[in-house]
Specification:
The chain is an alpha+beta fold. It contains seven helices and ten strands. The protein has a six-stranded mixed sheet with strand order 1-10-9-4-5-6. It has a two-stranded antiparallel ribbon with strand order 2-3. The chain has a two-stranded antiparallel sheet with strand order 7-8. The model has no long low-confidence stretch (mean pLDDT about 95).
């Protein structure tokens, strides 16, 4: 941990105001970037994707329900895995609590993994989540949206986050956005991967304000500390 200067209250206030100007500039830049995101072109989804869910087989169109907008979180949970990814579970802790707020804004949300439905349902029950979680095991959805890789793809370089990379797992995280118009046509409007989904990790903004921040520099990798919320020693 770095050594911080200890100063008078007035000196602290001067430093804090100077830093506030930088924070405000970042906020303005983030607002501008959000406006650019909304202006990105869309692509029509002509392929029909079908998922396995607790209510049976559901198409991509049916995941919208009565909403015109749909967010799908790509949760890392492979067919042979015994449980879901801890980091994706950290994301899910956040989005589960936001579900009623999203639906009030004409946005449906679903989580999709390649694990078979029985594994998904058992893990969801264990974690206490209520969001719709579906299996894409019999679908090309994960491959088409760049979050699942064959052994052959991983032997070379997997195409992830809009470029080739040495991704260490058969599954990868991400989020994709879709719009359905009155004619029932579906459009893929946006996807984000890797650190692009960091904003969904609700604990990080809180840690960033703590005196030691994320405190991850000495770890084998940044999120090595993350556990399922029922697996921390204090749980």
């Amino acid at each position: 941990m770095q050594e911080n200067k200890v100063v008078s209250r007035s000196e602290w206030l001067d430093a804090r105001k100077a830093f506030l100007a930088k924070e405000k500039e970042l906020t303005r830049r983030r607002d501008a970037l959000s406006r650019e995101r909304l202006a990105l072109p869309w692509v029509k989804v002509d392929k029909e994707y079908v998922f396995d869910g607790p209510q049976g087989r559901q198409t991509l169109a049916e995941l919208f329900g009565s909403k015109s907008q749909l967010l799908i979180y790509h949760f890392m949970f492979g067919p042979e895995w015994e449980q879901g990814c801890p980091s994706c579970s950290l994301v899910s802790d956040t989005i589960n609590s936001n579900l009623p707020h999203l639906t009030s804004r004409d946005v449906a949300l679903a989580v999709v993994s390649r694990a078979p439905l029985n594994k998904i349902e058992a893990f969801r029950k264990r974690m206490g989540w209520s969001f719709p979680w579906l299996s894409s095991f019999t679908s090309d959805f994960n491959q088409d949206f760049g979050v699942s890789f064959t052994p052959e793809q991983r032997a070379g370089k997997a195409y992830y986050n809009f470029g080739t990379s040495d991704f260490p797992s058969e599954e990868a995280p991400g989020i994709s956005a879709f719009y359905k118009n009155e004619a029932g046509e579906i459009f893929h409007t946006y996807s984000s991967y890797s650190r692009g989904v960091e904003g969904l990790l609700g604990v990080y903004p809180l840690l960033d304000m703590a005196p030691r921040g994320r405190d991850e520099d000495a770890l084998p990798f940044p999120m090595a500390w993350v556990r399922h919320h029922d697996r921390y020693e204090s749980a």
